[in-house]
Task: structure prediction
Amino acid sequence: MEITNKILTIFFSGWATDWHLIENKVLNNDTIVCYNYGESFDKILFSGGERYDLSKEEENSLLNFVRDNNYTRINIIAWSLGVYVVEHCREIKELITKGRELPKYNFVAINGTPFPCNDKYGIPVSIFKGTLDNLSDRNLYKFRRRMCGENFDFFMNNPPQRSLESCKKELEYFYNKMIERGFHSYEFNILWDKVYISKNDKIFPFENMNMAWRLTNTPIITIDDEHFPKQLLEEF
Result:
């Protein structure tokens, strides 16, 4: 693998998605898509028109990959539950604490909070738990329709190739982490550069996201879009 681009985007995707979100997109920068979260997660690199699976190579931690390829700029973009992952990700912590000689990072959050299962600052607990308890192919389809709204056809042009079992296991991971850390633990670990929140979000209530981010000094940008913000994700 020969890396020639000097800008890297690391995109932490949402629940029940995968790298197909950006397949066939025109990418100006090298891009790593992170998804299928648990104690570890999958990482797919898009570079020079090729796709590489970094998931199974332990030496390809984000820190090692960034160091080895001499990137001059790192954009870390997190969407939906990906925001929570960035807040608690060991590999991101390594980048911040051990990669101080590396270039400045730009952290952007989209339609998510560090408290994804929370009545005040995230998805209400009863809805989160109900989604987990009642997950089926039919209900996952309905979830994606709510997630996308008018962007549903665009999303389904290249749908995720994930099994129902893997999606359920992933959601269980998030819920169990919420129990472990406590539903009322309001800790921010990342200094985010900006956050985008959608007025029409039907997954994370807009007011909950707005209140959560007002606990910080992070600039909040309101957009007129769905939880899956087609135009914004295309721009990134």
Observations:
- The domain at 7-235 is CATH 3.40.50.1820 (Rossmann fold).
- The chain has nine helices and eight strands.
- The longest helix spans residues 164-181.
- The first strand starts at residue 7 and ends at 12.
